[in-house]
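agent> step 3/5: call structure_predict on target 'Bacterioferritin-associated ferredoxin' (Pseudomonas frederiksbergensis).
agent> reason: downstream docking stage needs a structural representation; sequence fetched in step 2, passing through unchanged.
tool.input:
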Amino acid sequence: MYVCLCTGVTDGKIRDAIYEGCCSYREVRQATGVASQCGKCACLAKQVVRETLSELQLGQAAIPYPVEFSAA
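tool.output (status=ok):
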C-alpha cells in the first residue's frame, strides 16, 4: 500500500529499508524520502516503522541461544 503519495513510498519500501539496516524512523526517512514533502503521511510511516522494528525484535528474541559458550 502507498504510504507517501508525494514520493511514491510504499509500506514495502519502508520494510525493505529496515531489513537493509535502517534502525529508526529518521534513517528510514533519509533512505526512502517518505514524509519529505507535505508530511501528511508521517503518522502512518512511523506506525509501519514501529511495527516492523517490533516484529524484528520479537523474531530475534525467539532465536534459541546455547546456554554456555566455549572459547576455542
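agent> step 4/5: record observation. The first helix runs from residue 11 to 19.
agent> proceeding.
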